[in-house]
């Protein structure tokens, strides 16, 4: 199967050995970050540094000043962790090593945007804002995300893109010194804690026949036993229906699904309009549409009618591939995303077996997270696994 490794520009720039090292893994492609959220990352082999701190979400190339002139919401440029056209420099070096380069674009995940423009953030039923989570129902935010997708995805020389976080983000988020693990919300509780009550979403619920104040009260009431330590009423979507009542739960989902679906359609259309012929557009996706996060919750049949395919989280098991495989046409890309960093829960030593199982369930390609973060031992496991697979 065609395999791509995720890479950051700072893994490559300043390290002349990096492109050949990545190519030697046996991958044909790299998925190189062009727009990314804040992070602190190890660079185990870099000759100049061992830790990179990306202080805020940023584009890793010079943004088009004309495109963003006069706009309140616009991408932030990176700082010293990725100066200049860091993406372009890394992409050129990787291409010279014989690797296809696709962009990796993180969209609705931006803490600095929420800090500087609080009104753009998801706000929960208690009035708490989630600065990392832009509300994708707001028109200005949707326009910003669509233009960012088109600009960041279609970088010079790129043959495709992978769009991450193109959907709802919610409570679940590995925040700095995160202290939210003391209450077990379960799937149903996560959904309730992720419902947005900004003015646009309140209007959206009203259009679905709900009173937004009554809905917020119902959410808080449903969560009260969870705060007291009772196990949440879980069971996936059935658990949400039990907590809110089926009619109310499905009305909230109808609003949120529509906002996510139409944003995905618009963003993919914008990317294709800016891209050359043959440019591949994939989404990082979860086959359950009410799920939030980096792997956007989608309806499999719908998203495979919009994009060229999906990248599906498969660390720990490839079961999430099945709903997509049921709707995949010939040529659809189903990329199984496997973590190969042992310290982050990955298993490079079982890569060949994991890839084989993913193939059985419909995977057509592999994604390896993450060539820059992995130790030498993990990378050797990848080399062996790809050769034996």
Average pLDDT value?
96
Task: Supply the helix-strand structural class.
Answer: alpha/beta
Q: Whole-Å distance between the termini?
A: 9 Å
Count of helices? 15
Strand order of the largest sheet: 1-2-6-9-10-12-13-14
Note the beta-strand portion.
Answer: 15-25%
What Rg is obtained from the alpha carbons, in whole angstroms? 21 Å
Largest sheet: 8 strands, parallel, barrel
Q: Could you state the order of secondary-structure elements as H and E?
A: EHHEEEEHHEHEEHEHHHHHEEHEHEHEH
Descriptive notes:
This protein is α/β, with parallel strands linked by helices. 39% of the residues lie in helices and 18% in strands. The strands form three sheets. The chain has an eight-stranded parallel beta barrel, surrounded by five helices. It has a two-stranded antiparallel ribbon with strand order 3-4. The protein has a two-stranded antiparallel sheet with strand order 7-8. Helix 6 packs parallel to helix 11, helix 7 (186-194) packs across helix 10 (237-244) and helix 10 packs across helix 11 (246-274). The longest helix has 29 residues, at 246-274. The model has no long low-confidence stretch (mean pLDDT 96).
